Amino acid sequence: MMAIRELKVCLLGDTGVGKSSIVCRFVQDHFDHNISPTIGASFMTKTVPCGNELHKFLIWDTAGQERFHSLAPMYYRGSAAAVIVYDITKQDSFHTLKKWVKELKEHGPENIVMAIAGNKCDLSDIREVPLKDAKEYAESIGAIVVETSAKNAINIEELFQGISRKIPPLDPHENGNNGAMKLGKQTTQTSRRCC
Amino acid sequence: MCSPEESALLRLEEVFSATLARINSLVLQPLLAAAPEPSDPRGRECLLLLQQLHGRSQQLLEVTEESLHSLRERLRHPDTVGLGSLLLLHGAEGVLRVHLEYIKSYTSCVVVQAFQKTAKKRSEYWRGQRKALRQLLWGVSPEGSVGTALVQALRQPLSHHVQQYVVLLLSLGDSLGEHHPTRELVVHAATVFGDLQSFMRQELDQAVATQALWQALSSRQRDALCTPTRRLLQDSQDIPVTVAPLRAERVLLFDDVLVLLQGHSVHTFNLKLVWVDPERDGCTFHLFTPEEEFSFCFKDPQGQVVWQWKVTQAVCQALRGNKDFPVLGAGLEPSPPPTCRSMAYTFLAEGRLCQATYEGEWCQGRPHGKGTLKWPDGRNHVGNFCQGLEHGFGIRLVPQASEDKFDCYKCHWRQGSMCGYGICEYGSDEVYKGYFQAGLRHGFGVLESTPQAPQHCKYTGHWDKGQRSGYGIGEDGDRGERYIGMWQADQRHGPGVLVTQAGVCYQGTFQADKMVGPGILLSDDDSLYEGTFTRDLALVGKGKVTFPNGFTLEGIFGSGAERGLHTQGVLDTAALPPDPSSTCKRQLGLGVFPVESRWQGVYGPFRDFVCAGCPGDLQEALLGFHVQSSKELRKSQEYLCCERTQLDDGVGRMDEVLEELLQHRQPEALQQCLRKALSSSLHPLGQLLRTLMLTFQATYAGTGANKHLQELAQDEVKHHARELWAAYRGLLQVALQRKGRALEAEEDTETRDLQVHGLVLPLMLPSFYSELFTLYLLLHEREDSFYSQGITNLSLFPDTKLLEFLDVQKHLWPLKDLTLTTNQRHSLVTDKCFLSAIECLQKIITTMDPREKLEVLERTYGEIEATVSRVLGQEHKLPMDDLLPLLIYVVSRARIQHLGAEIHLIRDMMDPIHTGGLYDFLLTALESCYEHIQKEDMHRLPSRWDSREPR
Q: Which among A34, A23, A195 is positioned nearest to A108, based on CA atoms?
């Protein structure tokens, strides 16, 4: 049996950029038919194979409104990865993205995997953010970047596959003991007390 | 027709009756009339015996007359009055009884030579009566003394008479046909009187031998031993005995005591407390008595057989309290005598039992079983004994030197000293409840002053050989202080935390009851002093004070009676506000008292209990009494004994307990079974839980309800859950073992944690909840008050205004739920929207189980989604952008008090398996609402939004 790793993934980005649409698309599509509990489109899970492991993504949505910004640390603490979403048709949302990246670098969990998703690539004719800008930025911070379309299901799988690949493999010793290491759990426990 | 034997019997009775009358007038009356009241005790004794004999003789006369009457009736009307009407036949037992009484009385007179002594006083008179006496007797030599003549006069007619009874009754029996209805009766009567003959012979022989012995002994020995009723059964002069290790020149076996004579000393042993233990080699046997053990050795086996038989029979007879009839050893009960007897005895030998009286059960010469031991100084022990020592449950009262106060120990004992669980109420208004070893407090125990005591003090913790030692909680009611930490030799020693009623906390190292060296002080206003303490708890030393506003003061502090607190140092007013985790939220005691070793003294006895295989009879000694309240224990000793008898079938009950565990191993049944076990004060697990509750309350209730102890407490609760699970597993293993079934494999950590958090914690948490929740309450008091303020402000908004204020998208508003009366606008209705979700969320405080609280949260979310789906007319999955404002709305309307404390308690007690998962998410969402309500722009007055018209 393959080891299951639970990976907490946090969704960040302005309201209206389609954070939850991406996840909805990711979770609905494909083979994961065993009913796993969800909280609407706010908390969803999906298990995907990755090498000789199974990655169970525990995906936490956040509220994108500016006024709730200060609550975000509660959500991203203990995350193994963060998906930061912007709308390629809105320059503002790309600015917000940069703010999130900065905050994660400063206050987020160590070694958090960051993935940048430029959503609504089906609307590239009214694009405001050039792909090149995004790529350059992503490279400068060592993040994954893809342009996605939740509507047309473009690059959604790839986004999460990219995350899976960037998750460091399990320490073989720990793997032997435990069967499955819960990465999310461990980081959460160490970081809880600061809040 | 009457038989000739009947006529002969009639004549016999006539003669005997006349003889008795003559004896009375000729002998007894003059004897009694002989002297004025004698002055010496011996003389008085003789007179009493003679009076008694006279009475017996009268009874004998009466019964003879009665018999005579029945015979006359029979002979007068042989056809109407049957043979069975004769008193000698139908009343043989009654006649026998009168004879026995007479013989007893007569032999007593013989033993003390009552006739000779009394006759001597009027020897003149008796010389004159000699002739008359001779008429009464036959074979009396004229030379014989008057005394001897009297002795014979009172016996001979009776012996002869009984002998004639037997002869005539036997003959009568023979004359009756084989199937005559009365034949049985006649044969029975003949046997009875035959036995009486044997008995008389034995009695007379014993009396004569005893009388002879008294004559032979020195007057001192005689005075010590001689009583009228005592009879000699065996004398070592007849069959020699060597006694070891005691020394004895002569051994005398009487019917009530065994006597060893050595020189002038007389050593007497009550036969009721003599145990005979035969030796295999045939020439020796052992005797056990309460204070001595010795052997009788013989030259040959015959001697051993005779003595052993005699002693054994004498012991039996003594225990029965009646003379064996017709002869010694012919008793109804089988020999040997019982090894366990009930008796009272006062110890004489020097030692711990000197002058003490034991009353109760004995075995082989030692107190064994239930009994009472009383010392002349007033000490008193009621309880179980084993091999002469207190063993098992017992209650000891020890009077105090002054006043009529007692120390009362209700404890378990082992080999004479207190061992195991006990409750001791001291005359000094203190009560100790806990464990003992070798008579001293040892292990876990609580020493507390009673409510009547002038000062309230309490220690809950560990003891070592009678002294406070190890982890313990000391409460000083007068000073309003509680010490939580390590003790040694009855003093606070080692790392410790001290909390005062006023809310001041100290943490440092104690030495010989004083806190010295580096330490910290947290005052109730969250100021922090870090530095050295040079004089116990006073702020004297070098250190740094951090004020709540962030100012720091570093220097040397001192305090004096006349100068107050003074310092020389540097005040820094530029510093940033202090880190809450080191001041207002600082947790004390962490890492100093590892949770695993904190209450070893409570878990330890349980482990011992399991290791010993859960013996029911040890349950109480190891796990404590199951008495419901301490009030019950204050009642009388007997009450406690009675109350506790339920536990006597502890062995059987333990089987039931274990059986129940075996039968409830599936998750649901197991939960039921554990719930029942934990709630029962009789169940081992329930007992363990109760003791743990006691320690928890002693630490964290009252003065200990201090926010700086929250972490210490929650650690402890979680550890208790682990230990309770381990305790359950221990019991289960014993249950399996008893059934001879395979033991459970060792669990891995993950399975164990799952059971601990999923199963045990929810079941035991209610027992600790009120103290624990209070700590969370205090720790989050500040945030909770901001939150309350936020709630109060938001409650001023009508529903639609609040939805708007929170930026809930308008298409999600459940306007249909607003039923309007006339003249009412939507904008004025409150507490109608999302009512089902609000009411659901409010249920979070109705349960103490963290899992159930999380389930409430999940249902609340479901209600929100259901309401939204209803409003939109289709199923709708809410993204966080929409959900969070709605959740804030619901939370603010649910108006749950102390939500911060709730959230943190749930998070700490939540099964770690949920981390990152659904429940974690829901709880985080709730926490973010809580945070949001506290701050944000909500503290703006409602007038702000009033001016804004809905878009």
A: A195
